[in-house]
Amino acid sequence: MSVMRTMKASAFLALAVLSVLSTGCRRDPASPGYTYMPDMAIPVSYDAYAPNPNTRDGQTLQRPVPGTVPRGMHPLHYEVTATDAERAGRELANPIAATPAALARGEKVFQTFCRVCHGDLGLGNGPIVPKFPAPPSYRTERLLRMADGQIFHTITYGTALMPSYASQITADDRWRAILFVRRLQGASGAPSETQTAAAERPEGRR
Ligand code: HEC
Questions:
Q1: Fewer CB near the last or first residue (10 Å), C or N of the chain?
Q2: Nearest to 181 by CA among 147, 131, 156, 204
Q3: pTM here?
Q4: Does a structural domain hold residue 22?
Q5: How far apart are the first and last CA of the chain?
Q6: CATH code of the domain containing 119
Protein backbone atom coordinates (compact mmCIF):
# COMPACT_ATOMS: atom_id res chain seq x y z
CA MET A 1 0.00 0.00 0.00
CA SER A 2 1.37 3.40 -0.93
CA VAL A 3 1.98 6.06 1.67
CA MET A 4 -0.72 8.19 0.03
CA ARG A 5 -3.35 5.47 0.43
CA THR A 6 -2.45 4.86 4.07
CA MET A 7 -2.84 8.59 4.73
CA LYS A 8 -6.20 8.67 2.98
CA ALA A 9 -7.39 5.67 4.93
CA SER A 10 -6.39 7.16 8.29
CA ALA A 11 -7.98 10.50 7.37
CA PHE A 12 -11.20 8.67 6.59
CA LEU A 13 -11.03 6.78 9.87
CA ALA A 14 -10.45 10.01 11.79
CA LEU A 15 -13.47 11.59 10.11
CA ALA A 16 -15.64 8.60 10.96
CA VAL A 17 -14.57 8.71 14.63
CA LEU A 18 -15.14 12.49 14.77
CA SER A 19 -18.64 12.26 13.33
CA VAL A 20 -19.60 9.55 15.83
CA LEU A 21 -18.21 11.67 18.68
CA SER A 22 -19.99 14.83 17.60
CA THR A 23 -23.35 13.06 17.25
CA GLY A 24 -22.77 11.96 20.83
CA CYS A 25 -22.50 15.62 21.85
CA ARG A 26 -25.84 16.63 20.38
CA ARG A 27 -27.90 14.70 22.94
CA ASP A 28 -29.84 16.67 25.58
CA PRO A 29 -27.13 17.45 28.15
CA ALA A 30 -29.72 17.58 30.95
CA SER A 31 -30.82 14.00 30.33
CA PRO A 32 -28.90 11.27 32.15
CA GLY A 33 -29.58 8.89 29.24
CA TYR A 34 -30.61 5.30 29.80
CA THR A 35 -30.73 4.24 33.44
CA TYR A 36 -30.23 0.54 33.90
CA MET A 37 -30.14 0.33 37.68
CA PRO A 38 -31.68 3.55 39.06
CA ASP A 39 -31.05 2.78 42.76
CA MET A 40 -28.76 5.75 43.47
CA ALA A 41 -30.00 8.00 40.65
CA ILE A 42 -33.26 8.76 42.46
CA PRO A 43 -32.31 9.98 45.97
CA VAL A 44 -34.54 9.20 48.93
CA SER A 45 -33.18 12.07 51.06
CA TYR A 46 -34.86 15.50 51.24
CA ASP A 47 -33.39 18.28 49.12
CA ALA A 48 -31.98 21.19 51.14
CA TYR A 49 -34.82 23.57 50.26
CA ALA A 50 -37.64 21.00 50.06
CA PRO A 51 -40.53 21.05 52.57
CA ASN A 52 -40.07 18.46 55.29
CA PRO A 53 -42.84 16.97 57.46
CA ASN A 54 -40.32 15.73 60.05
CA THR A 55 -38.92 19.04 61.28
CA ARG A 56 -40.65 21.52 63.59
CA ASP A 57 -40.67 24.38 61.10
CA GLY A 58 -41.45 22.18 58.10
CA GLN A 59 -38.19 23.07 56.34
CA THR A 60 -35.34 20.69 55.55
CA LEU A 61 -32.44 23.12 55.91
CA GLN A 62 -32.21 24.13 59.58
CA ARG A 63 -30.88 27.43 60.88
CA PRO A 64 -27.69 27.15 62.95
CA VAL A 65 -28.28 27.50 66.72
CA PRO A 66 -27.84 31.17 67.77
CA GLY A 67 -24.20 31.81 68.68
CA THR A 68 -22.88 29.11 66.34
CA VAL A 69 -19.31 29.81 65.24
CA PRO A 70 -18.26 28.40 61.84
CA ARG A 71 -15.08 26.33 61.77
CA GLY A 72 -11.94 28.44 61.44
CA MET A 73 -13.74 31.69 62.32
CA HIS A 74 -12.59 33.76 65.27
CA PRO A 75 -15.43 36.02 66.40
CA LEU A 76 -14.48 39.65 66.96
CA HIS A 77 -16.18 41.73 69.61
CA TYR A 78 -15.45 45.25 68.49
CA GLU A 79 -17.57 48.22 67.52
CA VAL A 80 -16.81 50.43 64.53
CA THR A 81 -15.46 53.24 66.70
CA ALA A 82 -12.07 54.87 67.15
CA THR A 83 -12.04 53.75 70.80
CA ASP A 84 -12.56 50.12 69.80
CA ALA A 85 -9.96 50.40 67.02
CA GLU A 86 -7.45 51.38 69.71
CA ARG A 87 -8.70 48.61 72.00
CA ALA A 88 -8.13 46.10 69.15
CA GLY A 89 -4.60 47.51 68.91
CA ARG A 90 -4.02 46.69 72.59
CA GLU A 91 -5.72 43.29 72.61
CA LEU A 92 -4.94 41.61 69.28
CA ALA A 93 -1.55 40.35 68.11
CA ASN A 94 -0.65 39.05 64.67
CA PRO A 95 -0.98 35.24 64.89
CA ILE A 96 0.95 34.72 61.65
CA ALA A 97 4.75 34.52 61.61
CA ALA A 98 6.55 36.59 58.97
CA THR A 99 7.75 33.64 56.89
CA PRO A 100 8.63 34.26 53.20
CA ALA A 101 5.44 32.42 52.17
CA ALA A 102 3.25 34.53 54.49
CA LEU A 103 4.90 37.72 53.23
CA ALA A 104 4.43 36.68 49.60
CA ARG A 105 0.74 36.02 50.25
CA GLY A 106 0.47 39.34 52.13
CA GLU A 107 2.02 41.14 49.17
CA LYS A 108 -0.52 39.53 46.85
CA VAL A 109 -3.40 40.61 49.09
CA PHE A 110 -1.97 44.12 49.28
CA GLN A 111 -1.54 44.32 45.50
CA THR A 112 -5.11 43.10 45.00
CA PHE A 113 -6.98 45.15 47.59
CA CYS A 114 -4.89 48.01 49.00
CA ARG A 115 -2.48 49.19 46.32
CA VAL A 116 -5.19 50.93 44.25
CA CYS A 117 -5.46 53.61 46.96
CA HIS A 118 -2.35 53.22 49.10
CA GLY A 119 0.13 52.85 46.20
CA ASP A 120 2.80 50.21 45.50
CA LEU A 121 4.99 51.47 48.32
CA GLY A 122 2.17 52.47 50.66
CA LEU A 123 2.92 56.16 50.21
CA GLY A 124 -0.74 57.04 49.66
CA ASN A 125 -0.44 57.61 45.91
CA GLY A 126 -2.25 54.66 44.33
CA PRO A 127 -3.52 54.86 40.73
CA ILE A 128 -7.02 55.95 41.84
CA VAL A 129 -5.66 59.06 43.62
CA PRO A 130 -6.69 61.92 43.29
CA LYS A 131 -10.06 60.72 41.94
CA PHE A 132 -10.39 59.14 45.39
CA PRO A 133 -8.96 61.19 48.28
CA ALA A 134 -5.38 60.17 49.06
CA PRO A 135 -4.87 57.99 52.14
CA PRO A 136 -2.02 58.84 54.49
CA SER A 137 1.42 57.33 53.82
CA TYR A 138 2.21 54.22 55.88
CA ARG A 139 5.41 56.01 56.82
CA THR A 140 3.72 58.77 58.79
CA GLU A 141 4.61 58.80 62.47
CA ARG A 142 1.05 57.81 63.45
CA LEU A 143 0.95 54.74 61.18
CA LEU A 144 4.48 53.66 62.06
CA ARG A 145 3.37 53.57 65.69
CA MET A 146 -0.06 52.00 65.03
CA ALA A 147 -0.38 48.50 66.54
CA ASP A 148 -1.06 45.50 64.27
CA GLY A 149 -4.42 44.96 65.98
CA GLN A 150 -5.58 48.47 65.09
CA ILE A 151 -4.61 47.95 61.43
CA PHE A 152 -6.57 44.68 61.61
CA HIS A 153 -9.56 46.63 62.95
CA THR A 154 -9.11 49.15 60.09
CA ILE A 155 -9.13 46.45 57.37
CA THR A 156 -11.98 44.57 59.05
CA TYR A 157 -14.34 47.48 59.72
CA GLY A 158 -12.96 50.30 57.57
CA THR A 159 -12.32 53.78 58.91
CA ALA A 160 -13.64 57.17 57.71
CA LEU A 161 -13.26 57.04 53.91
CA MET A 162 -11.68 53.60 53.82
CA PRO A 163 -14.23 50.81 53.32
CA SER A 164 -14.31 47.46 55.16
CA TYR A 165 -12.57 44.54 53.47
CA ALA A 166 -13.92 41.86 55.83
CA SER A 167 -16.06 40.22 53.16
CA GLN A 168 -13.27 40.06 50.57
CA ILE A 169 -10.23 39.15 52.69
CA THR A 170 -10.16 36.27 55.20
CA ALA A 171 -8.94 37.12 58.70
CA ASP A 172 -5.67 35.23 58.16
CA ASP A 173 -5.04 37.04 54.88
CA ARG A 174 -5.69 40.38 56.64
CA TRP A 175 -2.92 39.50 59.09
CA ARG A 176 -0.64 38.52 56.19
CA ALA A 177 -1.37 41.86 54.49
CA ILE A 178 -0.34 43.55 57.74
CA LEU A 179 2.99 41.68 57.64
CA PHE A 180 3.50 43.20 54.21
CA VAL A 181 2.44 46.69 55.35
CA ARG A 182 5.11 46.39 58.05
CA ARG A 183 7.63 45.50 55.36
CA LEU A 184 6.60 48.57 53.36
CA GLN A 185 7.20 50.60 56.48
CA GLY A 186 10.77 49.31 56.38
CA ALA A 187 10.45 47.03 59.41
CA SER A 188 12.02 44.02 57.75
CA GLY A 189 14.77 45.07 55.45
CA ALA A 190 15.03 45.37 51.69
CA PRO A 191 12.01 46.01 49.47
CA SER A 192 10.72 43.06 47.42
CA GLU A 193 11.22 42.74 43.66
CA THR A 194 7.72 44.06 42.89
CA GLN A 195 8.37 47.13 45.02
CA THR A 196 11.68 47.87 43.36
CA ALA A 197 10.13 47.40 39.90
CA ALA A 198 7.22 49.66 40.87
CA ALA A 199 9.55 52.36 42.13
CA GLU A 200 11.43 52.29 38.83
CA ARG A 201 8.31 52.49 36.66
CA PRO A 202 7.48 55.98 35.35
CA GLU A 203 4.58 57.88 36.97
CA GLY A 204 1.13 57.15 35.64
CA ARG A 205 2.08 53.62 34.55
CA ARG A 206 1.49 51.95 37.86
C1 HEC B 1 -10.65 52.77 48.37
C2 HEC B 1 -9.36 53.19 48.79
C3 HEC B 1 -8.66 52.38 49.86
C4 HEC B 1 -8.35 51.05 49.83
C5 HEC B 1 -8.60 50.08 48.72
C6 HEC B 1 -7.65 50.76 51.08
N7 HEC B 1 -7.56 51.89 51.84
FE8 HEC B 1 -6.66 52.06 53.62
N9 HEC B 1 -7.21 54.00 53.73
C10 HEC B 1 -7.87 54.71 52.73
C11 HEC B 1 -8.11 56.07 53.17
C12 HEC B 1 -8.79 57.15 52.36
C13 HEC B 1 -7.60 56.15 54.47
C14 HEC B 1 -7.65 57.34 55.40
C15 HEC B 1 -8.92 57.17 56.20
C16 HEC B 1 -9.33 58.46 56.83
O17 HEC B 1 -10.08 59.18 56.16
O18 HEC B 1 -8.92 58.71 57.97
C19 HEC B 1 -7.03 54.85 54.78
C20 HEC B 1 -6.40 54.52 55.98
C21 HEC B 1 -5.73 53.35 56.23
C22 HEC B 1 -4.98 53.09 57.41
C23 HEC B 1 -4.81 54.05 58.59
C24 HEC B 1 -6.02 54.00 59.47
C25 HEC B 1 -6.06 55.13 60.45
O26 HEC B 1 -6.71 54.96 61.50
O27 HEC B 1 -5.48 56.18 60.19
C28 HEC B 1 -4.46 51.83 57.29
C29 HEC B 1 -3.58 51.10 58.28
C30 HEC B 1 -4.91 51.31 56.02
N31 HEC B 1 -5.69 52.25 55.40
C32 HEC B 1 -4.60 50.06 55.54
C33 HEC B 1 -5.18 49.53 54.38
C34 HEC B 1 -4.99 48.16 53.94
C35 HEC B 1 -4.08 47.16 54.62
C36 HEC B 1 -5.74 48.01 52.82
C37 HEC B 1 -5.93 46.76 51.99
C38 HEC B 1 -6.47 45.62 52.73
C39 HEC B 1 -6.37 49.27 52.52
N40 HEC B 1 -6.02 50.16 53.51
C41 HEC B 1 -7.18 49.51 51.44
C42 HEC B 1 -8.26 54.21 51.51
C43 HEC B 1 -8.16 52.91 51.12
A1: N
A2: 147
A3: 0.70
A4: no
A5: 64
A6: 1.10.760
